[in-house]
Write a structure and sequence with these properties.
alpha+beta, 8-stranded antiparallel sheet, 5-stranded antiparallel sheet, elongated
Amino acid sequence: MTYNKSINRYFLLATGPLLGLLIALLISGTGIDWQREPDLLAPNIEITSTTTQVAKSLDQARVNAETTTSAIQNSTELYHKTTATMSTILKTAQTTASRPETIYNRRITSKLGSPFGTLQSDKVRIELYKINPGTYKGYAMKVKLKSPDAMKMTLGKDKLGGAETTLQAVNRYGAVAGINAGGFADSKGKRYPLSTTMLNGKYLTGFEPTFKDLFFVGMNKTGQLVGGKFQSQAALDKLNPSFGASFVPILMQNGVRTALPLKWQVSPLRAPRTVIGNYKDDQLIILVVDGYDEKGGSGATLAELQNKLFNMGVQDAYNLDGGGSSSLIFNGKVINSPSDGQLRPVPTHFLFFK
């Protein structure tokens, strides 16, 4: 037996049992299941369905977001247009509402001429004019109070019985303008306000019923001129006065010239004067007339001032202390020519603030 035959016999014997097993399986009909493991990369139907639904939801969300964004943009544009329209309507309404006031103010100003001094702030508007009808010379100061605290009354040196010039009061309080106020009486070297006087809503020496031709004039708590003759404190309190002083006589009431007391028609006939009044729109008008002295030969008569005020359309007007007391301060300067040659110290002043 050769070497090759020995090897062939060996493999035949080794593979014989296996071949026999295969033959036996084929004869018996038993099949071999060669099924492979599931393909892990094959698509899963359930996962695919969920993914599709999520994608659809995201698409719908995007559509909704775009719709919402568009709605917001439209609403914003509508808001801006509405706001702009309302602003235009408001401005038009304000202009329309202020037109009568503007027309009325022009009518007032046309009778005064051109101002040679003006001051404007959030609290007050002041215009200064010259008046010279031929028989006297003086000044008119038109004041628009935009705030009640733009005008105050002060006591000389801040005490009862004290006195100081209007310029001193203006400088001490930091005011922009000022005039002398009510009358006074001297006693034991002190200068006291005449009759009923109020400061900061309080009576300084109590209420005194009107006697002879005295009046009270001042401002109420809303910044309106109030005044007249009062027989009871209750009658004056109804006007809610904040401050005020007394003197004589009343010149105008409700646009009508009042009857002047005989004494004040001739004594003095002419004099330096200080007058305060108001228009229908509550603007104030102040007249300060120059004169050489208090002897009655220079300045204005009260009748002349009545006519001037009437022609200017003034509603109410009151004659304040005059003569050497007449003072007009504007922007830190003395505007009038005091008849004493210098300003007289007085107990009360009306001051204006910006």
